[in-house]
Amino acid sequence: MEISVKRGHAHEQKTACLVVGVHAGKRLGATAEALDKATRGLVSRLVKRGDLGGAPNETLLLPEAPGTAAERILLVGCGRPEALKPADYLSLVQKAARTIAEAGLKNAVSCLAEIPVRDRDAGWKIRQTCLAFGASAYRFERMKSKPSKRPHFARLGVLVGLDDSTEAQHAVNTAKGMLAGLSLMKDLANLPGNHCPPAQLAETARELGKTYRSLKVTVLERADMHKLGMGALLAVAQGSAQPPKLITLEYRGCPDESRPIVLVGKGVTFDSGGISIKPGANMDEMKFDMTGAASVLGVMKAVAELALPINVVGVVPTVENMPDGHAIKPGDVVTSLSGQTIEILNTDAEGRLILCDALSYAARFEPDVVIDIATLTGACVVALGSHASGLLSNHDALADELLAAGEKSGDRAWRLPLWDDYQKQLDSPFADMANVGGREAGTITAACFLSRYTKDYRWAHLDIAGTAWTSGKAKGSTGRPLPLLMEFILGRANLA
Ligand code: BES
Ligand code: MN
Ligand code: ZN
Q1: 436 and 349 Cβ atoms separated by less than 8 Å
Q2: Which of 2, 140, 303, 471 shows its CA 20 to 30 Å from the CA of 181?
Q3: What are the residues facing 393 on neighbouring strands?
Q4: CA distance 452 to 349
């Protein structure tokens, strides 16, 4: 999708559709009133007649736009003429973008950046508009034998006032970088397991390393990991015909030696459960069990594309979790890279096994903070549904910073406690710990397990089991939590 900043009058914009906010009440809003004049009172007549109530999210697509250079107008209700809540603005731009994509239009000019939003500047509104249109333009058709004939939304114009010009261009550039990362992330997550084994993630990382000179990519093979002593990660991989990989991407955007943000993404390219095999229903969705990994690759791409002045390292442990004659069995004990031993009571709790070794490995980058991202527990879906990712951390300030980034980006997280009280659920009579902690508080005990490998640095864990993808007819990657992570990184680079 192309995006450009537009200046001038709304009615002079040549476009398939002009997207305009309309407030309920006497004052329609600046652009709506100007368009009302250009269209000889059409907009106000429709509002008076009740065709557009003006409640937030209501839309009305006018198939003609007399008196303007546009072919159509999409009127978007913005509620009473007072500043919108940020969440309402987000759902309104998303609705507008969806309406335009569903109408099969190929381009549009949005005037929605003028709508006042509480505590948010023009840059935020423009960025969110670009992201919403980008999301509705995204398609995954690579696995179809023929491309669909549906017209594809391809060009967005963002109309801004003169005062906002430089800020607008900056916001558009940021959104473009994020959309490049999002598109890579969603493609990887949506790819079926047979087309995206660990080797494919490694290959994708290597390609990123070729495209961006600022990225240094290394891939550890099974033998390398064996030498290092990554017994937990290798244990998960041993039941699969697909060899495991440990990918690292080092981005140095800061000339000084400032400590990097390290992102660790769970990359289980398919999670059958292993010998503790999962029930059949919806098992296909376990191809999304590498969304944490995909988000790390997407963020690294966005950061490199935007050439951000900050140091970031991505670490991606990636395996396939399968049952076969070589697979780990309940009761097996393995030794992790940290030296701690683990009794594997359930082979379906594999994410923490690959993450614990990757988290120990992360220490060598002398991180400022480490954030791991994982579709880790079904319990998190039960606790928070699909609205918020779970957040657990050993550092309050880091947790607050991530929560704020979630709020600001609309990609929210909610913190759960990591109290020592829960640790004893992991006691094992045979090893230093068990890999599961029983039915109660499954998301917390999973994080408790990880906390035993992250004692030497500030660490946060994002459980994205409920937010990473949608099920049903519109099944697919949501792109979360890339917006949260990018907001966090942009904030740290003083560019938010
Ligand atoms: N990848 C799953 C978690 C998951 C389940 C994510 C459903 C999204 C939707 C993870 O590897 C897993 O199987 N976790 C187990 C842990 C249990 C055995 C302690 C779970 O949540 O059931
Ligand atoms: Mn599992
Ligand atoms: Zn899993």
Answers
A1: yes
A2: 471
A3: 460
A4: 16
- Give the model's pLDDT for residue 219: 99
Here the tokens at position 484 are: 């949260």
Question: Which pTM value belongs to this model?
Answer: 0.98
Burial status of residue 49 (CB atoms within 10 A of its CB: 0-12, 13-18, 19 or more)? exposed
Q: What is the pLDDT of residues 431-490, one digit of tens each?
A: 999 999 999 999 999 999 999 999 999 999 999 999 999 999 999 999 999 999 999 999
Ligand 1, atom 17: closest residue by C-alpha? 349
- Residue pLDDT, tens place only, 225-275: 999 999 999 999 999 999 999 999 999 999 778 999 999 999 999 999 999
Cα four-point dihedral sign 77, 81, 86, 87: negative
As given in the structure block, the two tokens for residue 323 are 């049952």
The size of the chain, in residues, is 496
Within a 10 A sphere around the Cβ of 235, how many other Cβ atoms? Answer: 26
Q: Which of 419, 471, 428, 274 shows the shortest CA–CA distance to 340?
A: 428
What b/e string do you get for 13-22 counting C-beta neighbours within 10 Å, with b at 16 or more?
bebbbbbbbb
Q: List residues near ligand 1 (CB under 6 A).
A: 271, 289, 346, 348-351, 375-379, 381, 436, 442, 465
Show which residues are catalytic.
278, 352
Q: Output the pLDDT for position 469.
A: 99
Return the C-alpha torsion angle 200, 202, 203, 206, nearest 10.
Answer: 160
Give all strands of the β-sheet with 59-62 in edge-to-edge order. 2-6, 155-159, 107-110, 18-22, 73-77, 59-62
Cβ burial of 375 (10 Å; 0-12, 13-18, 19+) is: buried
d(CA 22, CA 165): 23
- Looking up tokens 């099944």, which residue turns up? 475
Amino acid residing at 459 = W
The string of DSSP letters for 377-418 reads -HHHHHHHTTT-EEEEES-HHHHHHHHHHHHHHT--EEE---
The DSSP code for 122 is H
Q: Which of 377, 382, 436 to mutate to test the pocket of ligand 1 (most atoms within 8 A of CB)?
A: 377
